[in-house]
Design a protein that fits this description.
267 residues; alpha+beta; 10-stranded antiparallel β-sheet; 10 strands
Length: 267
Amino acid sequence: MHKILTLLIAAFAVLGASAHTLDEVTTTQQGVKETDDNLIRAALKGWHVRLRAGFNIGGASPLPLPREIRSIEGYKPGLNIALGADAHKRFGSSPWGISVGVRFESKGMDTDARVKNYHMEAVNADGSGKVVGAWTGYVKTKLDNRYVTIPLLATYSFNDRWSVAAGPYFSILTSGSFTGEAYDGYIRDQDPTGEKAEVSRATYDFSDDLRNFHWGIQAGGEFLAYKHLAVTAYLQWGLNGIFPSDFNSVTFALYPIYGTLGFAYVF
């Protein structure tokens, strides 16, 4: 019995010493964390950093919709992810501020449209070569582009939770593809008055012709739901088309227009 009591006393002594050591370690870690936070705040001098993630929903569209496109038969937005970070700073006690960031994002879509006298340059699936002219039938298009984007935004904070932002963005294309097929229709040689030829299926690939630099306007808002978590929504409206102005295989500009829903971690 005496040995058992001795062992119990020794065990409690060890546990007490361990707990005391853990308290010291925790206190030290908290002190280090507070010191690191203070150093970060001092280095940023009023700038607040956010890590962002979201999904882009939209597509590349002509404005207005040309009369050659008679109806949209199908649309899929694809899995368009946007990941990035930005730094935000308010001008003293003013509600106005500025935000600068960078994000890596994808912008894509799948569409199916019924068209009439739609200018088409494609390769006939029967092996007879390239066909050029006015296409009447159906057109499927698949767009899959990836960008590095830099938004430069003015911000306005209504209070500690609600804020809005707007300004230009600039994008560099890192990789992209624009492919599709024409099917169930016919083509008239060169223009709508040319010789008619039945075509069951023809494919096209304009990936190498995509524009490398884009710019546009971004506008949206943010709600700080918790201390470090914000919900975000914004619209990106491209002001130049996805193809250069001298590209003639598509006879109208296709502007990238995307809405983004996501969240941000606020440091």
